[in-house]
UniProtKB/TrEMBL annotation:
Name the record gives this protein: BTB domain containing 3
The organism's place on the tree of life at top rank: Eukaryota
Complexes and interactors: Interacts with cul3. Interacts (via BTB domain) with zbtb16/plzf.
Pfam family of the protein (one): PHR
GO CC aspect terms: cytoplasm
Function of the protein: Adapter protein for the cul3 E3 ubiquitin-protein ligase complex. Promotes the export of zbtb16/plzf from the nucleus to the cytoplasm and targets zbtb16/plzf for ubiquitination and degradation. Up-regulates neurog1 expression and antagonizes zbtb16/plzf, to promote neurogenesis.
SUPFAM superfamilies, per database record: POZ domain
Domain BTB residues, every copy: 57-127
Source species: Lepisosteus oculatus
Protein localization: Cytoplasm
Keywords, ordered alphabetically: Cytoplasm, Ubl conjugation pathway
Taxonomic placement: Eukaryota, Metazoa, Chordata, Craniata, Vertebrata
Length: 459
C-alpha cells in the first residue's frame, strides 16, 4: 500500500563501499581478501563493510512473519552501540545467550534499512518501506532514524495519504506528524475523504475525522466517504456488503455525520435514499428541515465551522482609467513563494469600473510548468473596487521556498479596476509571501500593478 501512497525514490549514486553494501543487501557476503581492513581508511567504512555480512557474525535474526522470513547476520557490539534495546538484549542483566533471534513483527526490508543506518550511518528510505522502518526504529529506539522516517512522511504528505498517515502517526505517537496530517485533512478535506486511503483507516481514526469541527467539506461528501469506508470494513470483517451490515460496522459513528446540516437537495437525493438511515430517522430529519417545532435528533445538527480563508493582498491601492485595462483573452500572471506550507483556495479578482458586470475567469496554478490546479467559473462584480473571489475546485498544497505561477484569463467588461503600488513581500499572519514577475503574463500584470490582487489561502 505504501508504494502506491508515496513517490518512488531515485537510486543514489554508488561508491565502492556502497556497491559492497548493495551486494550485502542481496546476499550474505564474506570478504575474500586477507587485508581488507587496509582498503578502508575510516572506522565508519570498515563497519559499513560488515553490514549484512557473515564475517565475524555472532548473532542471527530470523525476520518477518511465517512464510516470509529472512535470516540476517549481525554483530552484537555494533548493534549494541547503535541501539539501547540491542545493548540490553546482548549485554544487559537479562541478556539472552541465543545465537538466533526471531523477529516476526518487523518486515525484513525495514530491518535491513535499520541495520544499514546502524552499521553505515546512512539513511536509505523508500516509499514501500518507510512506515515499517519507522516501526522498527521505534521498537529498537533508534531516534535519529525514526526522525528521518517522520521527515520523509511529512515531505510526502498529501491529501491522498493523509488519512492513512494520521492513523499511523497516532499509533507511533508522533504529534508533529499528526498535526501535519490534520492540516492537510482540514484544508483538502474532500480530496482526503475521496481517497482510497480513507477506506483503510481504523474505526477510531474514522470517528476522530467525523468529529472534526474544522473539516472543510460538504456534509454529503462526508456521508458518502463514510459509506465507502463501511463497505471496505464489511470486506475486512468478511461480512456481506449489505445496507444493514454497513450500518452495523458504522455503529455510533453514523451519528457523527452532520446529516441535518446538508442542503435539503443533498439529503433528499442522497442520504434519505441510501437505505442506511431508518425510516424514523429519515422522517425526523425531513421534519427538522421543514417543521416549526423540530424533533430531537441523535445526529449532530450544528454545522462544522470549517476553515476561515485568509487573504494576501499585494497592492496598496487600485485605480481605473478609460480604456486602460483590456483583456481579450490575454493572460494575467504573477509568481509567488511562501515561507510556510499553505493551501491556495482561489484568487481575489477586480471587476468592472463601469457599473455591475459579469466576468468569465479561467484560473490556473502551476509549478515549474506543471498545472496543479485550474478552474473555469463566472463571477459578478458590482462596480465597486472590491475584490471578488474565484475558487479552485479543491485547495492546492503549496510548499515553502519554491516559486509558483498564478494565472487568470478574464473575459468581460474591459474597463476594470487594476492594482497599483504592488509589494514584493507581504506578511499575512505567520506566512510571508514573496512576489516576482512571470513570463506567462501577456496582459501587463506584474509586481507593481495589474490583476490578481489577492491570493486566498488556508494556513
Amino acid at each position: 500500500m505504501a508504494a502506491e501512497i508515496f513517490p518512488t525514490k531515485k537510486p543514489a549514486s554508488t561508491s565502492s563501499v556502497q556497491q559492497f553494501q548493495q551486494q550485502n543487501l542481496n546476499n550474505n557476503n564474506t570478504i575474500q581478501t586477507t587485508n581488507w581492513q587496509g582498503l578502508y581508511p575510516t572506522i565508519r567504512e570498515r563497519n559499513a563493510v560488515m553490514f549484512n555480512n557473515e564475517l565475524m557474525a555472532d548473532v542471527h535474526f530470523v525476520v518477518g512473519p511465517p512464510g516470509g522470513t529472512q535470516r540476517l547476520p549481525g554483530h552484537k557490539y555494533v548493534l549494541a552501540v547503535g541501539s539501547s534495546v540491542f545493548h540490553a538484549m546482548f549485554y544487559g542483566e537479562l541478556a539472552e545467550d541465543n545465537d538466533e533471534i526471531r523477529i516476526p513483527d518487523v518486515e525484513p526490508a525495514a530491518f535491513l534499512a535499520m541495520l544499514k543506518y546502524i552499521y553505515c550511518d546512512e539513511i536509505d528510505l523508500g516509499a514501500d518501506t518507510v512506515l515499517a522502518t519507522l516501526y522498527a526504529a521505534k521498537k529498537y529506539i533508534v531516534p535519529h532514524l525514526a526522525r528521518a522516517c517522520v521527515n520523509f512522511l511529512e515531505t510526502s504528505l498529501s491529501a491522498k495519504n493523509a488519512c492513512v498517515l494520521l492513523s499511523q502517526s497516532c499509533l507511533f505517537e508522533e504529534p508533529d506528524l499528526t498535526q501535519r496530517c490534520w492540516e492537510v485533512i482540514d484544508a483538502q478535506a474532500e480530496l482526503a475523504l475521496k481517497s482510497e486511503g480513507f477506506c483503510d483507516i481504523d474505526t477510531q481514526t474514522l470517528e476522530s475525522i467525523l468529529r472534526r469541527e474544522t473539516l472543510n467539506a460538504k456534509e454529503i461528501v462526508v456521508f458518502e466517504a463514510a459509506l465507502n469506508w463501511a463497505e471496505a470494513e464489511c470486506q475486512r470483517q468478511e461480512l456481506a456488503v449489505t445496507i444493514d451490515n454497513k450500518r452495523k460496522v458504522l455503529g455510533k459513528a453514523v451519528y457523527l455525520i452532520r446529516i441535518p446540516t446538508m442542503a435539503l437537495d443533498d439529503f433528499a437525493n442522497g442520504a434519505a435514499q441510501s437505505g442506511v438511515l431508518t425510516l424514523n430517522e429519515t422522517n425526523d430529519i425531513f421534519l427538522w428541515y421543514t417543521a416549526a417545532k423540530k424533533p430531537e435528533l441523535q445526529f449532530v445538527s450544528k454545522p462544522r465551522k470549517g476553515l476561515v480563508p485568509q487573504r494576501c493582498h499585494r497592492f496598496q491601492s487600485c485605480a481605473y482609467r478609460s480604456n486602460q485595462w483590456r483583456y481579450r483573452g490575454r493572460c494575467d500572471s504573477i509568481q509567488f513563494a511562501v515561507d510556510k506550507r499553505v493551501f491556495i483556495a482561489g484568487f481575489g479578482l477586480y471587476g468592472s469600473s463601469c457599473g455591475s458586470a459579469e466576468y468569465s475567469a479561467k484560473i490556473e496554478l502551476k509549478r515549474q510548468g506543471v498545472i496543479l490546479g485550474q478552474n473555469l467559473s463566472k463571477y459578478f462584480s458590482d462596480g465597486s473596487s472590491n475584490t471578488f473571489p474565484v475558487w479552485f475546485e479543491y485547495p492546492v498544497q503549496i510548499e515553502p521556498d519554491t516559486f509558483y505561477t498564478a494565472s487568470v484569463v478574464l473575459d468581460g467588461n474591459e474597463l476594470s479596476y487594476f492594482g497599483q503600488e504592488g509589494m514584493t513581500e507581504v506578511q499575512c499572519g505567520k506566512v510571508t509571501f514573496q512576489f516576482q514577475c512571470s513570463s506567462d503574463s501577456t496582459n501587463g500584470t506584474g509586481v507593481q500593478g495589474g490583476q490578481i490582487p489577492e491570493l486566498i489561502f488556508y494556513a
